[in-house]
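Working notes for the structural subgroup meeting. M.R. asked for a predicted model of this chain before we commit to crystallization trials. I am recording the input and output together here so anyone reviewing the notebook later can reproduce the run.

Input as submitted:
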Amino acid sequence: MDYQVGDKVVYPHHGAGTITKKEKREVLGKKSEYLTIRILHNDMTVMVPVESAEKTGLRKVITSKDVDEVMAVLAQGETRMPKNWNRRFKYNREKIKTGDIFELAEVVRNLSIREAHKGLSTGEKQMFNRAKKILSSELMYAKGLNEEEADSFLEEALKGAHPVGAGKRKTDD
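Returned structure, recorded in token form:
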């Protein structure tokens, strides 16, 4: 994929950002082209070699049309997950690592429902907060919102889709 300065992209583990620079650099004696990406929500700058951008999961931000599909995923019922928190944590971590926004939305939805009904372990709370930030950062660019508006948009979507006390949990081993 051809990336240009100004493109809005998603780096799976950190969230959405803007390509601020595209330059050739020599690292360990090898010249490569690098993308410098500014991740706004966590005040981070990431450099990604162009040749391995796809392998790292880098992709362009979803379109505004895709936001409706993300909202539909958030509104669905909880996915069957392991009862054991450690297995559940690994299951969700693997989904986040894919870089797929629909997988990420599924994790956010499931952890939101679980938090409302059963509560989350400390590790799951951290994962939930990080996953929400990553999702919110992409929604921010896709919908043309600022960071605070995107956070509110996501929170309202989760509240509206799964009010506290609604629905039943499904788990299995």
